[in-house]
């Protein structure tokens, strides 16, 4: 059967027969997309959805934004090269110019840019290779709840052990420290005590000659854990990590693959804390929806030999053209400020939902990176008085939202967090629609769960 005239069900059945069992999104979002514009996607049956997944945060300007479409059309009309390895072009130089302009001045002044293979995980692999080459050390410090990609080295950095099981026989040099997850503090503490204890733990561990940790090549962290459940790190903790890594001469890698380019209400999430990293990994939004991945790092680390790191598709001119157009539009229209305002508006809606339903345990986020943690009010509370996470309810809310025309993702510990990553250009009225749908979806999923529980009883 061809795609022409096919229903979503037929296309999904065909996908199931032909694609790998590793596919993920179609299992919870049974969608066959026909067209898309801005924050709206339409399936082959004519159903419309507000897209609060947006390519896992890749589509900063939404689908088919005119600024990107016009730039790509210009590239084709002028017979520009589409792929150039690491040979330069005016398109590439324009992208690098815009990228450096978007970065904090103190970082950009001494920055080098390494183009990688196109996925964010490739940037993480390159960043690890960079700091290991520069320091001569091998071990890494990462954090519980972390997500940095799905290639072998990046998997070792991941906090979730399940995806790492296929490489369990490999001896890892990654040490996972507690992340300051205030709602479910790993130390069982509340308020500011959580981040302070986390920082003290890291500092004492790195200062202890009997810790079992050899001198690290680098520390890698997310300023907001995305797949880990939309957990923003307190600014004070980020500043503490910067101080500690400087004192111990450990390069600090900040993974802004999902937070970068305005998502959190600043162009880069580290700017909330006035932190300047040694290494920044970027992908997703900087490609304007097309594959681009880079490592930006302090020139003092640039001791690689020619050809020490490569990647066939590091010369993707389409991605660079779309990326430059996206960065320019974000800068010219101050979209990070718009993202901050829309994020506050969205969180206000979710807080209203939390005030109505006890099954919403926590609402959190930064800018348009927002999470809502679902809990089981019938379960036993922990030392902080928190109900247990309820991944089944989060999945039910995702399904109910999809039925009502809203695409969201789930993630976090036990899959209990409903995640929202809409385009930065989303309108206030669309945010209000999202808030209304989430409310109705929680109400529906919660009542269905109650009905099932009463039936079992």
Automatic annotation (TrEMBL):
GO molecular function, one term: diaminobutyrate-2-oxoglutarate transaminase activity
Keywords: Aminotransferase, Pyridoxal phosphate, Transferase
Segments passing through the bilayer: none
Region of interest (Disordered), ranges: 1-24
The EC number(s) this enzyme carries: 2.6.1.76
One Pfam family it belongs to: Aminotran_3
Cofactor(s) the protein needs: pyridoxal 5'-phosphate
Uppermost EC category: transferase
NCBIfam families noted in UniProt: dat, PRK06938.1
Family of this protein: Belongs to the class-III pyridoxal-phosphate-dependent aminotransferase family.
Official protein name in the record: Diaminobutyrate--2-oxoglutarate transaminase
